[in-house]
Structure formats: structure tokens, C-alpha cells
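Sample entry follows:

:::
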Amino acid sequence: MITTIQRLFVSFMLVGVGGVVANGEDHPIFSQVSTNDLSVATSDETPLRWSYSDCLDWAIAHNTDIRQTLLSILQADEDIAQAKDAWLPSVDFSTGQGFTNYPLAMSGRKSNTYNSSYGVNASWTVWEGNARKYRLESSKLVKRQQQLAGEDQIKELQVAILQAYLNILYSREAIEIAKSTLEVSTAQTERMRKLVEGGRQSKVDLAQIESQMAQDQYNLTQAESNLSSYKMNLKKLLNLGLENDINIVDVAFPDSEVTSELIPMASAYESALGWLPAFKSNQIEAEIYAKDVDIARTGNAPNISLQGGIGTGYATGGRDWGYQMGHGLNENIGLSLSVPIYDGNKTKRAVAKAKLAQFEADINREKLLNDLAQTIENLYIDANNAQARYRSGMVQLEAMEETSTLVNRQFELGLVNPLDLLTAHNNLLNARLEQLQNKYMAILASKTITFYASGEVEMP
């Protein structure tokens, strides 16, 4: 039955947290990010017929998750700028204004006095154990992780769009099979009606043939419904609205491509290790944890800071304001040293926790290696099985087609009963659909293996 065979053929688990393209370069969209990249042009025209590359380009430009990552990269840029600003001195202006009332008079003193002070002060941390340096290096690594996360999203889109694209191609061919099958059953029904009218067959036999025709009509409707669902899935990946329809270009896969020799498993595995996002992100994760250890250790480092200022003031009861302000002008500079002696083991605990976090990167890498090995092996099992079934299915399909042709001729001559005709009819239908499924399973597995080996999806 088409309804049971037309399903998503296979789903593959992609190993990844952040990724890069096969040649090690970043996608341009993540290299130079500005706030303009966060908005999407609403005037973009959709292609009349979508190629795979059209789908991918559109998805990259309109995907909300990618725009969210672009926002995270901009935030990471601000964190880097903030870490750089930590080297700048702090400068402030201060002033104090006071009024004093003396209820009891005293010789040489007024009952009310006013005084003020003015100063410009600066402070700069000379050295604090290189904590600023480590924080800046860590913030740059975090930005790199955000860029890798964006690259990974593009890689996931490549495979997700590939699956959706092949689903649509599969459904199109399934519809053609359903149409062809319906044409045959319709012709058989007309033939049976003539035989019934001629008294050579019973109405019971006619009812059986008509039932098969109705089933074939239902199968065609179901196949068309499946195509609409697969188109909707692709539109979801592309962030296309209800007002947009999608019509992909036709892609032909010759038998030579379906059964082409696979890349050696070891080669695909080694290549994946070289470019897969997870391993690059894991390496950066380890470096960030190392910086956390360095930052924690600065809690035991002395702190040296430089201070300086310029000040003056005025008070009633003395010379005039200008004289006091000018002659009261003073400048000061100082150097302070703070040496931690005991902080209640805060630094010790912070260093210990940072070192424990380093083990997480090692554990994650081991898990990634195991997941990758299992994923690659499963891909090859699926690909080899699908190719083997496709090769054997070709022989079986030829036999079913020949059998169906002979049974149809015998039925026209009245040599077989309707049950034999329906059996041959359904056997041929199932063989065609099974062969179609094996074909696209083999293509999907093969192209996913190529993706792991090269970092790119090869589609016309």
C-alpha cells in the first residue's frame, strides 16, 4: 500500500555543536556581522522552480535560528570590547558643597560658613595577575563558538533540506506509479464490464475488480496528499508563508548513481573528524575551561593600582574665591599594592572547580567519538542494505512486470479468474513501490555519507 510505504525513509543523527565548512573557512554570513543582518528583506522574490541550492540559500537568509545566532555573535563582540575596556583607566569628577551654622558667636568666626571642594581623580589597575588578559582571550573563544554554532546550523539545514527534497522527489515518482496503476485497473474494469455484459463473467467478479480500482484511486489520492505534506515540511524549513507555493526542479538519479561504490568507511570517518563542528567546538570548549582555571588562579595574585588626582577648594572666612581656588590647587599621585593573604579558601575552591570542569571537555569528546563511529557505521549498513535490495529488486520487478503482462493477457482471453489478476496487480504495485523506496533510501544514505566525508551535500 502506498500509505504504508510512503513515509520518511530514514533519519540520520548528525553529530555537532558548531561547525565549519570542509575547507575550514567560515560561511561569509558569520565573518562580518552587523545589525542589518538581523532583519530579512521582505521583497525577496521566490524562484519559480526551486533547486536544492535555491532552497539552501533561501533558508540561510530567512532562518530565524541563524538570525538568533547572528545576534549572539554581535553580543559576543560587545563582550570582547568590554574585556578590552578593562585595560582603560577610570576617571571621575567629584565635588562637595557644605554649609555650617554656628548658633553661638565666637571671636573671629562668622555664624554661618560655606565651604566647597573640587577634584578630578583617576585610577588604573597596573597588574592583577593577568585576569584581564585571560578574560579577553576567553571572550574571543566564546565568539568563535557562536560562529561555529551558526556553521553547524547551516550544516543541519543542508541535510534536513536534502531529506525533504528527496521526500518530494520520491512522492512525485510514487504518484506516477499510482497513476499508472490506476490506468491499468480502470482498463481492467472496463474489460470486466464487457465480459459481464457478454455473460462470460459474473457481477461478483466485476465487483472485485471495481473494488481494486477504487483502492487504486484512493492510493493516488493518498500519494498526492503525501506530496503536499512533504512540500509543507520543506516550506517550514525555508520559512515560507502560506501564500507561497513550492515547486522543485526534477532530478533524475540513474541506476549507476543509486548503486555507486561508497567511500571507504575509514576515509569517511577520518574526514568527518577533520571538519565536523562538534570536534572543533569541543577543542574550543577545552581552551575556555583552561582560561577559567587561569582566571581562578589570579585570586592569589597581588593587585597593583595607580591613582592620581587634581583638587582644590574654597571656604568662607578667608581670602576671595579666586585666590583660594588658585592657591588651593593640588596634585597627587600614588601607587597601591594589595597582597591577598587569606580569603577563606575562595580562590582554592574556584581553581578546583575550574579544573573539574576541564574533565567535561574530555568526556564530551569521548562521547562524540563514540556517537560518530556509531553514526557512520549505521549509515554504511543502511546504504549497503538499500543498494543490495535495489539490485535484487530490479530482477524481481522485471519478473513481476512480465508476470503481470501475461496474467492480463490470460484474463482478456478468460483463462484466469479475477483473484489471480488482482494478485498479479498488487504484487506489481508493491514491487514498484518497494523498489522506489530502496532507490531513495540508497540515495539518501549515500549522499549523507558523502556529506560526512566532505562537509557538503552534492545535489544538482
The beta strands are 90-101, 112-127, 303-315, 330-338.
